[in-house]
Write a structure and sequence with these properties.
Blueprint: H1 4-17, E1 23-28, E2 45-51, E3 54-59, E4 63-68, E5 73-78, E6 90-96, E7 101-106, E8 112-117, H2 125-128, H3 141-149, H4 155-160, H5 170-180, H6 191-210, E9 251-255, E10 258-262, H7 264-267
The structure holds a DNA duplex (16 and 16 nucleotides).
DNA sequence: GGCTGGCCCTGTACGC
DNA sequence: TGCGTACAGGGCCAGC
């Protein structure tokens, strides 16, 4: 499940390989989520950027090819015809003028592709309303506090909306709340808790980035390599295992449709509502 | 306008 | 062994 560190790892690999190449042909799964991939045909790729979990490929005609990896999206670049080309889970592919083919596979089809005028993200609500980048100086503890205390939703639910900060998904959210010793089901927090959560978010994402991403099931880089960060998770997916800080057994619950792992001893009792 | 819950998807794990 | 069911979850959207 690609979150910011995984998407950034992929971005770096694509940005090292694609700028300068022109898309001479394209194909896509007929679903409305992937069909727009063919709209990029004829354009050259200038750069590969990232906002949150979205990959933004700048095209030379004033548009952007936007790709969200969803849960199981993955890129590969085929250099020889017939080798690592489109497969049963390929949802889009782009043939380049240098003979390579960029292939986008997505088993569960939670991904999404769009081509828009540069900077016009109105057709992608989450991207349009996206919060600051976590490593940007504009993302401060105060900004996070303001974004979280201005809602009555659970803190984690609000965090996953991508509005307080861009790029945090379920894995890094659990890690950040555990690190900050803040209960994710709370609906309010102090400025001191916000400061700890801010530090926890940045730290968790930085660690994921340094590890080349977290591979739990499907995530692979463009080069097919798995991430390493799954070996360093302290909380996510460790229900029933001892907390690395206090030794209590970690618990898990489902709130707002998302499984959350937490330490009752470190992060406090679950709020009544 | 804010919030909640359902839906989309398919491989994997597990129980019977 | 084979079948059925639950589960994983990011983003969108209808309905409250």
């Amino acid at each position: 499940m690609p979150e910011l560190p995984e998407v950034e790892t992929i971005r770096r690999q694509l940005d090292a390989a694609l700028p300068g190449a022109r898309i001479v042909a394209a194909g896509a799964h007929p679903s409305a989520k992937f069909a727009p991939a063919t709209d990029a045909e004829g354009a050259a790729i200038r750069a590969v950027r990232r906002r949150g979990k979205y990959l933004l490929l700048d095209l030379d005609d004033g548009r952007e090819l936007i790709v969200h990896l969803g849960m199981t999206g993955a890129f590969s670049i085929a250099t020889d015809r017939g080798e690592a080309g489109p497969g049963p889970y390929t949802r889009a592919w782009w043939e380049l003028d240098d003979g390579r083919t960029v292939v986008f596979d997505d088993i569960r089809r939670f991904g999404r592709i769009a081509v828009v005028d540069a900077g016009d993200y109105r057709s992608l609500p989450t991207l349009h309303e996206l919060g600051p980048e976590p490593f940007d100086p504009a993302f401060t503890p105060k900004v996070l506090w303001e974004a979280l205390r201005g809602t009555r939703r659970r803190l984690k639910t609000q965090l996953l909306s991508q509005r307080p900060v861009a790029g945090v998904g379920n894995i890094y959210a659990d890690e950040a709340f555990w690190s900050a010793q803040v209960h994710p089901a709370r609906r309010s927090l102090t400025s001191a808790q916000a400061a700890r959560l801010h530090a926890g978010i940045v730290e968790a994402l930085r660690r994921g980035l340094d590890g080349g991403g977290t591979t739990l099931r499907d995530y692979r880089g463009v080069d097919g390599r798995r991430g390493e960060n799954q070996f360093h998770l302290a909380c996510y997916g460790r229900r029933g295992l001892p907390c690395q800080r206090c030794g209590s057994l970690l618990e898990a619950a489902v709130w707002d449709g998302r499984t959350t792992t937490f330490c009752r001893a470190c992060q406090g009792p679950t709020p009544r509502r």
